């Protein structure tokens, strides 16, 4: 049966459903036994739903579904809801998967909704042991749980991403996308498992989300514009980061980022902007961090324009990323390290228009918290503890 005929049959049989046309993967042959490869059933159900002329819902009922690499590709003829009630499980063997495509991909879709309370289980524990990017500097050898590319006017909510092999969610080239009530979970020692990574996308909203992982809870790459991150709890993890920027040529500007009402607990970093030394020219501006709670966070507030995680950089050459219009307001809590505030800006392009207002960070150790500043002259207001940028270089 071709996709058009399948759509017609389902439409006639389920005309009374208020949700529109329903496509149940079990009716397309999915076993849901946690062992059989259900890829063909998912691909057939998606093709039918995407081809339907009316709004449709692809339903994955409760159960465990083993699926290898899958691409849910548009454009679709009407909005589609991907209702995940069960658990999708990735194969543990990696030789059949292309890392750049991710494990599951949503591509070129307008009006997508992903919901249902289910789980995307990347089964990444075996893969983390083979991740040697700390030695090689090459960290793209494993697939992300979800690759979301060129998806517009869409929403992802009430789902869980578990134990991804690399990034949990990689969002690229998207517009007007909301992520709400997402749970992301992986252990602290899972390398490069960024929770939500955003690149070359605009109008992205992340809210009411809980992220526990082995790398940045939220990371924003080049071209991230008009991004709002709100009510996110992060930890363990490496914090909420803009960057790293400046590793490649022709990177697009990062403009218009707001991070507010977030709580970070036992993370390696708090809120940070990071750029590589010896970088090509670039821009990062209009970035605001406010109403943030830090609980035993190392490096709670950080601008680092000498970012070099693997020691393979030309550190004597300054970064050419121009950072400006940055604010840190009402950031409070405890620091796991004595150095609670660190601004190391570029010698070639000092940071401009940096505002700091009402910072209260105490050191969870003996002695008082401190700050360090280089190549920046911020505007300071409100209460400051530790005293910020009293000494600059």
Which tags fit this structure?
single chain, 393 residues, mainly beta, 29-stranded parallel β-sheet, 4 helices, 29 strands, 8% helix, elongated
Which stretches of 5+ consecutive residues score pLDDT under 50? 11-19
Radius of gyration: 22 Å
**Structural class by secondary-structure content:** mainly beta
Major sheet characteristics:
29 strands, parallel
How far apart are the first and last residues' alpha carbons, in Å? 71 Å
The average pLDDT score comes to 92
| Approximate helicity band | under 10%
What portion of the residues fall into strands of 2 or more residues?
over 45%
The number of distinct β-strands equals: 29
Q: How many DSSP helices?
A: 4
Q: Give the overall shape.
A: elongated
Can you offer a commentary on this structure?
This protein is mainly beta. Helix content is 8%, strand content 48%. It is built from four helices and 29 strands. The protein has helices at 3-13, 39-51, 125-129, 133-136; strands at residues 21-24, 33-37, 56-60, 64-66, 70-73, 80-84, 87-89, 104-110, 112-115, 119-121, 146-157, 160-162, 169-172, 175-180, 183-185, 196-199, 202-212, 218-220, 225-234, 240-245, 254-265, 271-275, 282-297, 301-304, 321-335, 339-344, 352-363, 370-374, 379-385. The protein has a 29-stranded parallel β-sheet that branches. Helix 1 packs across helix 2 (39-51). It is elongated. Residues 11-19 have low confidence and may be disordered.
State the gist of this model.
The protein is mainly beta and 393 residues long.
């Amino acid at each position: 049966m071709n996709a058009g005929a399948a759509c017609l049959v389902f439409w006639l049989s389920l005309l009374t459903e208020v949700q529109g046309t329903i496509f149940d993967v079990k009716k397309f042959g999915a076993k849901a036994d946690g062992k059989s490869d259900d890829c063909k059933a998912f691909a057939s159900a998606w093709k039918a739903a995407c081809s339907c002329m009316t709004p449709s819902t692809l339903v994955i009922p409760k159960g465990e579904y083993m699926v290898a690499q899958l691409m849910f590709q548009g454009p679709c003829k009407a909005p589609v809801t991907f209702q995940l009630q069960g658990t999708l499980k990735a194969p543990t063997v990696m030789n059949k998967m292309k890392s750049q495509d991710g494990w599951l991909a949503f591509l070129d879709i307008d009006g997508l909704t992903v919901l249902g309370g289910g789980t995307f289980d990347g089964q990444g524990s075996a893969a983390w042991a083979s991740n040697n990017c700390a030695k090689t500097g090459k960290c793209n050898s494993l697939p992300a749980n979800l690759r979301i590319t060129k998806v517009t006017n869409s929403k992802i909510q009430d789902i869980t991403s578990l134990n991804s092999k690399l990034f949990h969610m990689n969002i690229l080239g998207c517009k007007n996308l909301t992520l709400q009530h997402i749970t992301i979970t992986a252990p602290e020692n899972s390398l490069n498992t960024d929770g939500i990574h955003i690149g070359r996308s605009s109008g992205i909203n992340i809210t009411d989300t809980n992220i526990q992982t082995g790398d940045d809870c939220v990371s924003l790459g080049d071209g991230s514009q008009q991004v709002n991150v709100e009510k996110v709890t992060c930890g363990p993890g490496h914090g909420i980061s803009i960057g790293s920027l400046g590793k490649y040529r022709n990177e697009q500007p990062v403009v218009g980022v707001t991070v507010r009402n977030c709580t970070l607990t036992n993370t390696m970093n708090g809120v940070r902007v990071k750029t590589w030394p010896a970088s090509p020219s670039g821009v990062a501006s209009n970035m605001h961090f406010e109403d943030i709670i830090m609980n035993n966070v190392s490096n709670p507030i950080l601008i680092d324009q000498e970012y070099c995680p693997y020691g393979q950089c030309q550190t004597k050459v300054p970064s050419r990323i121009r950072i400006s219009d940055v604010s840190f307001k009402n950031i409070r809590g405890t620091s796991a390290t004595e150095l609670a505030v660190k601004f190391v800006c570029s010698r070639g392009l000092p940071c401009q228009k940096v505002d700091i207002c009402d910072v209260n960070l105490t050191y969870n150790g003996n002695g008082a918290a401190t700050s360090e500043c280089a190549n920046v002259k911020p505007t300071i207001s409100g209460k400051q503890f530790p005293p910020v940028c009293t000494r600059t270089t």
